[in-house]
Amino acid sequence: MHPEDTATRYDRIASWWQTQHQSSFYGIAQLERAIKFVPNKQLAIDIGCGSSGRFIQVLKEHRFQVEGLDISEEMIDLAKQLHPGITFYRADICCWNPPKLYSLIVAWDSTFHLPLEMQKPVTQKLCDALEPDGVLMFTCGGGYRQSEVSGTFQGQDFEYSTLGVNAFLKILAEHQCTCLHLEYDQYPENHVYIIAQKTGSTLS
Ligand SMILES: C[S@@+](CC[C@H](N)C(=O)[O-])C[C@H]1O[C@@H](n2cnc3c(N)ncnc32)[C@H](O)[C@@H]1O
Q1: Segments making up each domain of the chain, as ranges
Q2: In the predicted model, what is the mean pLDDT of residues 37-56?
Q3: Which CATH superfamily is domain 3-198 in?
Q4: Given the CA of residue 14, which atom of ligand 1 is nearest to it?
Q5: What is the phi-psi region of residue 164: left when phi exceeds 0, alpha when psi lies from -120 to 50, beta otherwise?
Q6: Which residues cross the membrane (predicted)?
Q7: Banded model confidence at residue 204, pLDDT cuts 50, 70, 90
Q8: Is the pLDDT of residue 86 over 80?
Q9: What's the confidence (pLDDT) of residue 97?
Q10: Can you give the C-alpha Rg of the chain in angstroms?
Q11: Could you tell which of 52, 70, 90, 97 is best to mutate to test the pocket of ligand 1, judged by most ligand atoms within 8 Å of the CB?
Q12: Atom of ligand 1 lying closest to residue 122 CA
């Protein structure tokens, strides 16, 4: 599915998402784990931040300077109302060129919607946008094969893709990032979250 079609579907459920997730703890323990690995808590960005700003709130509490990015205009507009002082980008992560280097990049349940062929370039882009020792946390489909699946959520059809865990780890290693934590946090659901750090070491 083209990212703009994903955006249209999220536009339709943006208000529901905000009400449902504003005080949700989903993914927050994982975010707290990632934050512990960040040595310099300066600039953080939430990729696919959604309308609730729940990750943004936690990042603010940890005194990061925070930015949010989302492809859905409705999601961004609602998130802005809750966090008026924050820089938001209404952008497709596939086309967005990071203007800065980040201490922490979070992409929770967002990049798993990308078309399969965009998984590799976007993961590379996120690695490249980390400052030295910066941390990336993202979710992806598990397993060792690439795959594409569709599903219905809140009456909207969505698509998901993954390269498989081994391929993501290879991309991280090729882009000077070291995996610090990988967990099937919703097992037996095929949902994985990965925390990696820009250590400067590469695959030899
Ligand atoms: C499942 S929601 C997760 C929202 C938020 N991360 C949270 O956990 O509350 C997925 C979000 O990713 C955004 N998204 C999907 N594809 C995107 C893309 N190509 N670029 C930027 N954002 C995208 C959607 O608009 C939506 O807000």
Answers
A1: 3-198
A2: 97
A3: Vaccinia Virus protein VP39 (3.40.50.150)
A4: 27
A5: left
A6: none
A7: low
A8: yes
A9: 97
A10: 16
A11: 70
A12: 19
Model pLDDT, residue 203: 60
Consecutive H or E run containing 7:
helix 3-21
Whether 152 shows a pLDDT value over 60: the answer reads: yes
Q: Which runs of consecutive H residues, i.e. helices, occur in 43-185?
A: 54-61, 73-82, 116-128, 165-174
Q: How far is the CA of 63 from the centre of ligand 1 (A)?
A: 23
Any atom of ligand 1 within 6 Å of the Cβ of 71: yes
Q: What average pLDDT does the structure give for the chain?
A: 96
Q: How far apart are CA 83 and CA 32, in angstroms?
A: 20
Looking at the predicted structure, is the pLDDT value of residue 202 above 80?
A: no
48 lines ligand 1 (CB under 6 A): yes
The atom number, within ligand 1, closest to the CA of 94 reads 19
